[in-house]
Amino acid sequence: MILCITEKPSVGRDIARILGASTSRGGYYEGNGYCVTWTFGHLCTLKEPADYTDMWKRWSLSSLPMIPPKFGIKIIDQESIRKQFETIRSLIAQADEVINCGDAGQEGEVIQRWVMQKAECNKPVKRLWISSLTDEAIKEGFQHLRAHQDLEPLYTAGLCRAIGDWILGINATRLYTLKYSVNRQILSVGRVQTPTLALVVNRQLEIDNFVPKDYWELKTLYRNTLFSSSLKGFSTEEEGKKILETVAQFPLEITDVSQKKGKEAPPRLFDLTSLQVETNRKYGMGADQTLKTIQSLYEKKLTTYPRVDTTYLTNDVYPKCKQILNSLKPYSPLIEPLRGEKLKKSKKVFDDSKVTDHHAIIPTGQAIPQGLSLDEKRVFDIIARRFIAAFYPDCAFDQTTVQAKAGTTSFKANGKVITDQGWKKVYEKKGGNNTEEDEDKTSDDENSVMPEFHKGESGPHSPKLVKKTTQPPKYYTEGTLLKAMETAGSMVDDEDLRESLKANGIGRPSTRAAIIEILYKRGYIRKERKSLRATQAGIDLIAIINEELLKSAKLTGIWEGKLRQIERGDYSAAEFIQQLKQLINEITLNVLRDNSHRTIETVAYEEKKSNSGKGSKGTKTKKKKV
């Protein structure tokens, strides 16, 4: 008998149907030489401190740091979980071969292997590795099962991640709670959550401490076109007026007119983080809300595997793209221009070298059913339009730059005219040419249509001073915070640069939403409309942590980079764990030496509901000396 172990009962039902295991039993299906059973996500977890020794039951500074000689796992203590685990263990004992059918990712690998280890599986194991749950993908996956040992580096990276989180999270949380908390109210510290909190806190402190300053820019109007001076802004109006008076004595002379044609490629396909950023920008959806929605679409077989960190497709997907496009019946008017032509194949879309486990998120080609929720419709629409746009031509435009001078002062004006919308047609709004993709990018100076200018012409103009005020940085939204996590705090819009920074991003695409949710639940951040604000508890916690490695997104990103190297088999897992052990020893000593007598007192309160109607609990803190 061949035993298949899936991660969810719903996936188990689909695989059992395809394999012909049609007889339902308690906790599994059987038939046609197969048994198909399932976990409920995590059945096992790393042991807690008290599971190793009674000395670690009580929270005590003298017992820190706690580092077990060998980490162990245990079954989660719930009756339903224990019952299902016993079913799995019994079936493994009877099986001739086991097929790991867990979610094809790092977390899925850890979930399944821990269960098999705890069940003392000594049978041959193979791995089902699929990127969608369609019948075709499942059948193809069973025809190309992977060797169990091929996924060993992936499991090792997941194990190191879990152990690293245990070493830092459990020890640092006890350490800071015992040292700084009033009445031992928990001060939660984590390997990823604390640097993420620091991003929000540091941004908020920048805003709180920001002192706005007025400045004046010199501009002039010539032939209904606004020209900007090359001079830097003036700190006083009087300084600007002196230059303005001089400039006004001269006509404006056109010194150069340059025109060039430009192209803008379609936006990249979605990985999980960029999808969460887009749904937050467009609909205000939270990261966790988007993850749950795309997971639902995946389980309904409408979209491919969601927990991905690449925006590329492999070349073997290209032959399937026409069929996928044709399946998008509600988008037929957008797909019509692509019919009868060979589909464009861009290196920015198809690149095997940029894909490891799974490709970008795209539709699967299954018919879209009725009854999708509003969130599901919105997320699917975003994914479908991005996929369609990938095969459209580039957007073409003419860029005109006009250089001018009045006396010795230089001016410049830019104009941009779109000559072929290309992929922007996919996002075109009814009743106009502006697109949703343009909403955050338009600039009057750079996109205005200008009259024709000739080098050497000159004439009267109307110079003026425009008063402006320096602006503080914007509060993080969930979308911009996800971007910052992905790039270890470096805020960049350039897609190519973002791709290169992903290697040292903090957290994984699948866990970033959960990290943000933890910060809400701990009362360290709250939401005001779309903006994320740090509570006093969050601010005080970051202030009290002196160890940069615990709160620096860049340094934590280095750890994440090493985990990715472990996943590729390019870095030693033992060295990674040893470094974390050394780090927690140093942190413990530094905190114990702190004689500042600082404390954080947390007081629970209920936050007012946001515009979305979702309330959350938070904390206030008081800092006092004792």
Outline of this structure?
By secondary structure, the chain is an alpha+beta fold. The longest helix is centred in the first third of the chain and has 29 residues, at 152-180.
Keywords:
single chain, 626 residues, alpha+beta, seven-stranded mixed β-sheet, seven-stranded antiparallel β-sheet, 20 strands, 39% helix, 19% strand, flat, disordered C terminus
Walk me through this protein's architecture.
The protein has about 625 residues and is α+β, with helices and mostly antiparallel strands. The protein contains 21 helices and 20 strands. The strands form five sheets. It has a seven-stranded mixed sheet with strand order 2-3-4-1-7-8-9, sandwiched between helices. Helix 9 crosses helix 10. It is flat and about 95 Å long. Mean pLDDT is about 90; it is low at about 440-445 and about 605-625.
